[in-house]
C-alpha cells in the first residue's frame, strides 16, 4: 500500500516546506506496542532517575526555541512573539513537572480512623501508555503539556497532533530523540480523526484529548466500553465580568487583548463580556481606543494573524451575521479579509448583543468581542453562567475579596481575578473545564495524578484488624455485638 503524506500549507505565505507520513489506523497498534515495550523500563525508573532525561529534554527545547518558532510561525501564521510565548508556556510546564513530580506523587498517608491500629497510604504508580490527541491552535504547547505530565508520572506517550499542524507536533519526538530520551518513550503519529480514533481503541491506558466538544464526546464514547480513563479539554465560551469598581482601562485592554490573542483561536480567550451599567460607557470608550490600535494581516506590525484553519472564518462569519440579524451592532471590524494564501478576520467589537445569539451561546473562536450591558453583579453572574460550557472566566474589580467571592460562583473550572488566560500556563494549579468544556482536567497535582494508578495499601500494625474486631468466621459474636461496636466507635451517635 502506498504511503499517504500530510503536507501543511502555511496560512501566512501559502508555501509548503515539510511533509510527514500518515499513520494509517491499522498501523497504530504496532506503534502503541513499541510504547508498551518502552514502558517496561521507563515506568520502573524512580523520579530521581527519570529527572535527568526530562531535564535534558527541557534543555533541548530551550536550545531549539528559534527552530520551533520557525515551524510554529510557518504552520499557524502566528506572530513570532506569540510563538515564543507559546514556548514559555511549554518550558514552564516542563520545568515544573520535571522538578516537582517526586513531590507531587509522594505517597499520601491516610488518617488512622476509625481503625486506629491499621496504617494506610496511597501510592501513585504510572498507568502505562498515554495516548495524547491535540488540536491546531497551540500545536506545540498543548501536546507537550499533556506529555510532560504523563512522562514525569512514568508513562510513555504516543502523540497524535492535529492534521492541520503536524510539523509542530513532530518536533516533540525529534527533540526528545535529540535530548537522548530512551527509544520509543515519546512517539508521534500522524493523521486525521480516524488515526486519533485508532489510538483510543488501541492498547493505550489513558487518553488525554484536547479539541472540540463533538470530537471529545466521540473519544469518551469509544473509551467507555473499555473503562479507559480520559482527560478531556474541550470547547468553551469564556466570559469576562467587569464590575463598577474595576480598573476600567485594564479591563477593557484585557478584553481586547484576550479576545484577539492568537487571532481569537484560543480556548481560554474572552468570548463574552458583561459590563455593569454604571461603567459601561467608559469601558466601551477604552475598548474602542484599544481595538483601534490593532490590525489584522501579514507583517511584523500586525497583531492579528490568519485563521490557522481557514474553515474557522466561516464559523466566525456566521456568528457575526446571526448576531447582526438579531439586532447586534458592529462597533468596529466585522469583516473577513481574503488573501492569496490565507484568510484573516478583522478585530471586531460588538454591542447590543443578547443570549438569543449564537455569538453568546456557542464558541466563536475568532477575534470577536461582544459586549453586553448588565444592571449589576448578580445579572453579570447569571448571564456568564448561562452556557453549557465551563472552562475559564474572569472577574474585574479592585476589591480582591469581592472578586474571589464572585469567582467562586462562576460555573467554570478556572477563573482569574483581574487577569485572564493566566490559569492556562500556571502548571502548579489545576486547569480544566466542566460541563461541555471537559472532564478531569490537567496541570497541578490533579493533572499529573490522572496519569497514575492510585494504589491504596493498608498494613496491620499488631494483628489483623478484621480479627481484632471479631469479623472472622466462624462467627464468635452474638447479635447486637456490632451495634455495641458501632456505638463505641461513633460516640457522636449517642
Ligand atoms: P478537533 O476536535 O477537530 O480536533 C482535535 C484533535 O482530535 C485532532 O487531532 C483531530 O484529528 C482529532 N480527532 C478528531 N476526531 C477524532 C475522533 N473521533 N477520535 C479521536 N481523535 C479525533 O478540534 P480542533 O478544531 O483541532 O481544535 C479546536 C477546538 O479545540 C476548539 O473547540 C477549542 O476550544 C478546543 N481547545 C480546547 C482547549 C482546552 O484546553 N479546553 C485547548 C485548545 C483547544
Compact description:
The chain is an alpha/beta fold and 494 residues long. The protein is built from 17 helices and 20 strands.
Structural description of this entry:
With 494 residues, the chain is an alpha/beta fold. The chain folds into three domains: 241 residues, 3-Layer(aba) Sandwich (Aldehyde Dehydrogenase, Chain A, domain 1); 187 residues, Aldehyde Dehydrogenase, Chain A, domain 2 (3-Layer(aba) Sandwich), CATH 3.40.309; 31 residues, no CATH class. Helix content is 40%, strand content 17%. It has 17 helices and 20 strands. The strands form five sheets. A seven-stranded mixed β-sheet has the order 12-15-16-11-10-17-18, with helices on both faces. Strands 7-6-5-8-9-19 form a six-stranded mixed β-sheet, with helices on both faces. The chain has a three-stranded antiparallel β-sheet with strand order 3-4-20, with no helix packed on it. β8, α8 and β9 form a beta-alpha-beta unit. It is globular and about 80 Å long. Bound molecules: nicotinamide-adenine-dinucleotide (NAD).
Amino acid at each position: 500500500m502506498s504511503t499517504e503524506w500530510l503536507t501543511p500549507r502555511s496560512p501566512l505565505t501559502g508555501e509548503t516546506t515539510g511533509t510527514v507520513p500518515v499513520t494509517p489506523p491499522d498501523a497504530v497498534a504496532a506503534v502503541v506496542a513499541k510504547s508498551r515495550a518502552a514502558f517496561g523500563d521507563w515506568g520502573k525508573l524512580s523520579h530521581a532517575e527519570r529527572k535527568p532525561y526530562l531535564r535534558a529534554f527541557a534543555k533541548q527545547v530551550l536550545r531549539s526555541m528559534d527552530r520551533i518558532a520557525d515551524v510554529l510561525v510557518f504552520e499557524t501564521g502566528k506572530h513570532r512573539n506569540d510563538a515564543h510565548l507559546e514556548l514559555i508556556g511549554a518550558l514552564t510546564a516542563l520545568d515544573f513537572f520535571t522538578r516537582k513530580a517526586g513531590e507531587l506523587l509522594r505517597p499520601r498517608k491516610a488518617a488512622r480512623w476509625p481503625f486506629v491500629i491499621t496504617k494506610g497510604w496511597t501510592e501513585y504508580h504510572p498507568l502505562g501508555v498515554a495516548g495524547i490527541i491535540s488540536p491546531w491552535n497551540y500545536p506545540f504547547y498543548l501536546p507537550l503539556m499533556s506529555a510532560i505530565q504523563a512522562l514525569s508520572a512514568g508513562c510513555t506517550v504516543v502523540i497524535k497532533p492535529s492534521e492541520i499542524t503536524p510539523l509542530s507536533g513532530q518536533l516533540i519526538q525529534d527533540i526528545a530523540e535529540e535530548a537522548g530520551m530512551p527509544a520509543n518513550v515519546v512517539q508521534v503519529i500522524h493523521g486525521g480523526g480516524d488515526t486519533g480514533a485508532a489510538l483510543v481503541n488501541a492498547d493505550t491506558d489513558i487518553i488525554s484529548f484536547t479539541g472540540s466538544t463533538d470530537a471529545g464526546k466521540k473519544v469518551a464514547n469509544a473509551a467507555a466500553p473499555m473503562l479507559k480513563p480520559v482527560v478531556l479539554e474541550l470547547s468553551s465560551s469564556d466570559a469576562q465580568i467587569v464590575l463598577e469598581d474595576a480598573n476600567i482601562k485594564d479591563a477593557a485592554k484585557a478584553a481586547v487583548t484576550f479576545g484577539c490573542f492568537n487571532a481569537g483561536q484560543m480556548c481560554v480567550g474572552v468570548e463574552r463580556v458583561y459590563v455593569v451599567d454604571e461603567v459601561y460607557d467608559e469601558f466601551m470608550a477604552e475598548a474602542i481606543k484599544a481595538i483601534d490600535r490593532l490590525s489584522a494581516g501579514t507583517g511584523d506590525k500586525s497583531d492579528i494573524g490568519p485563521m490557522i484553519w481557514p474553515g474557522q472564518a466561516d464559523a466566525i462569519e456566521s456568528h457575526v451575521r446571526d448576531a447582526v440579524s438579531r439586532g447586534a451592532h458592529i462597533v468596529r471590524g466585522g469583516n473577513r479579509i481574503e488573501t492569496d494564501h490565507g484568510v484573516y478576520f478583522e478585530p471586531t467589537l460588538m454591542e447590543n448583543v443578547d443570549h438569543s445569539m449564537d455569538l453568546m451561546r456557542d464558541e466563536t473562536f475568532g477575534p470577536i468581542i461582544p459586549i453586553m450591558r448588565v444592571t449589576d453583579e448578580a445579572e453579570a453572574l447569571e448571564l456568564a453562567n448561562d452556557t453549557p460550557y465551563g472552562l475559564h472566566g474572569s472577574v474585574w474589580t479592585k476589591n480582591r475579596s469581592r472578586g474571589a467571592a464572585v469567582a467562586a460562583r462562576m460555573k467554570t473550572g478556572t477563573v482569574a481575578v483581574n487577569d485572564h488566560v493566566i490559569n492556562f500556563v500556571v502548571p502548579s494549579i489545576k486547569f480544566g473545564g466542566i460541563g461541555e468544556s471537559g472532564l478531569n482536567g490537567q496541570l497541578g497535582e490533579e493533572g499529573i495524578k490522572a496519569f497514575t494508578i492510585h494504589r491504596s495499601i493498608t498494613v496491620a500494625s499488631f494483628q489483623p484488624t478484621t480479627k481484632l474486631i471479631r469479623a472472622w468466621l466462624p462467627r464468635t459474636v452474638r447479635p447486637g455485638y456490632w451495634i455495641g461496636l458501632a456505638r463505641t466507635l461513633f460516640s457522636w451517635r449517642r
